Prior knowledge:
With about 230 residues, the protein is an alpha/beta fold. The protein is built from seven helices and ten strands.
Amino acid sequence: MFICLKEAVKKYGEGEAAVYALDHADLVIGKGEICAILGPSGSGKSTILNMLGGLDTPTEGNIIIRGHSLAGMSSARRTVFRRRNIGFVFQNYSLMPVLNVYDNVALPLSFDKGRHMDHAYIRELLEGRGLWEKRVRLPEELSGGQQQRAAIARALANRPAVLLADEPTGNLDSATAADVIGLLKASSRKYSQTVLMVTHNEVIAQSCNRIFRIEDGRLCPEGGMLL
């Protein structure tokens, strides 16, 4: 058990007005797995990622990653844990527009004063994603696929054990999307990472080791069956 949600609930409001973004969800993912959460917009996919990433806390239940309970951590401890264990890839890339590609990728390391700035590793990340020659370019000078590759490199900068991807191919054409999914898989193999992505794209989900389906905040019983 590498990632675990235990009876996780995210509720807004009380009584009859209560809205459940997540309704007693259970989820177990092993080390090195590449899994997808498939569901329509507003079903609770991003809520799960936010809680697994320590960006939000459950109303009830628990979140365990690498044996650490996130629900029991203080906000400060969660921030440090997130920075050192979890990488994020977003649909809109979320690159800093005033920083070049190299500095965008190195940015997570600059936030963590306890980490050495490993320039050789940053070069390895950029070269592995075909971006070394574009390291001094600004994000606006890159294509969408190149920006997402830079975002993946940035997510790997802290050598996270877990990579969370929120609709990572949502803004890309099918060929570029396939390239990005290939990069995520290659990163998982090379760096022994566990990858969890949310998507509404069946084709993307089918490329993963396992699929979990979610609707109205509930993970369906058939979710997680081996493909």
